[in-house]
Amino acid sequence: MYKLYTRANTGGFVIEAALALAGVPFDQIDVPKGRPDQAFLDISPLNQVPVLILPDGRSMTESAAICILLAERHPEAGLAPAASSADRADFLRWMFFMSSVIYSADLRFFYAHRYTTDPRGVDAVKRAAVSEMDRSFAILDAALAGHDWLAGDQLSLADIYLVMLVAWHPEVAKVPTAWPNIGRLWANLREHRVIKRLNASHDMWPA
Questions:
Q1: Which of 24, 48, 79, 195 could bond to 71 as cystine, CB 3.0-4.6 Å?
Q2: What is the pLDDT of residue 43?
Q3: CATH assignment of 88-192, among 1.20.1050.10, 3.40.50.720, 3.90.950.10, 3.30.1140.32
Q4: Distances (CA, A) of 21 to 25, 59, 120, 143, 150
Q5: Alpha helices in 23-146 (DSSP H)
Q6: What per-residue confidence (pLDDT) applies to 34?
Q7: CATH top-level class of 2-77
């Protein structure tokens, strides 16, 4: 059985969605903020969530990587385009793009003090992070033009990953007008049974 260490309104949102869509049982351990104990640092050296403990006991961090692994281990759930599909390239491209560019920008915004040794530089770090988010969302919005989903003709974890990042934008109210294709995807997913249920516990956006 899987074991998921997570916390509300974190990258654990998309992992919970993946496990729910795959219909596989898992134990959930909520990790409080604050100073971690050594046992948690042993499985997550950077003190980050989510952490997925695999059935064989190994631990895995990095939400995008966990998504890809779960999609591979549970192909019947259709969490991602099949490895043999032409759409697989888009899935991998956008998963890595979002995790390396947008997720990283989110961290720089919410934990700006970690990214400068000058206390006076915190605001500049935050402004640069928002600019990076905006530039990246514009790229994804263009990719969604004329398409319902980021990768192929059905929902994948890339779409859920995207709306999770959208919810973290510090000016989230501007999303529907600034990036209408993303806004359309977000509106559709807000009505998905699994996403609605998870939002009730994560409080990612107003119900």
A1: 79
A2: 94
A3: 1.20.1050.10
A4: 11, 21, 45, 25, 18
A5: 38-43, 63-73, 88-97, 103-110, 122-143
A6: 80
A7: alpha beta
Q: Which two tokens stand for residue 166?
A: 């959208």
Q: Where are the domains of the chain?
A: 2-77, 88-192
Alpha helices in 144-179 (DSSP H): 157-167, 175-178
Taking the model in full, what pTM does it have? 0.96
Q: How far apart are CA 125 and CA 15, in angstroms?
A: 28
- Which pLDDT score is estimated for 166? 97
Q: Which helix (H) or strand (E) holds 60?
A: strand 59-60
